[in-house]
Write a structure and sequence with these properties.
Blueprint (H helix, E strand, L loop, with lengths): L17 E6 L12 E9 L3 E5 L9 E8 L4 E13 L6 E7 L5 H5 L11
Antiparallel strand pairs: 1-2, 1-4, 2-3, 3-6, 4-5, 5-6
Amino acid sequence: MATKIDNRRHPRINREENLSLTLLPAGSSSLDPEDRLYLTSHDISLAGISVELPSPIKPDTDVELWVALLENYGTYHLYGTIAWCAAPEGHLLAGIALNLERADGRLWAAHFDSTGHFSD
């Protein structure tokens, strides 16, 4: 039987990165500062980021995020969609599927090699 890990498109790298995530309300152009969350990543990949959450977020919620990579790799403005939200092992996590065609998506993708592994 296939597991979620078997179905992943890109390898995950366990990295704790600082990021801010803003929920994007459907059809709204103005953002309320209260919609911004300051989070830590659980892991990252070429096409997604797993984050630790203080409360659940519905799947299919569009998000805007700023990720500050460690080791002076820079800060990236990215867009994505909540793909899943669950509490494995007692920690509330969400998976964000990134839209690499928007904002700094291509710059983000440049940190990964052709096999999807993070490269320096």
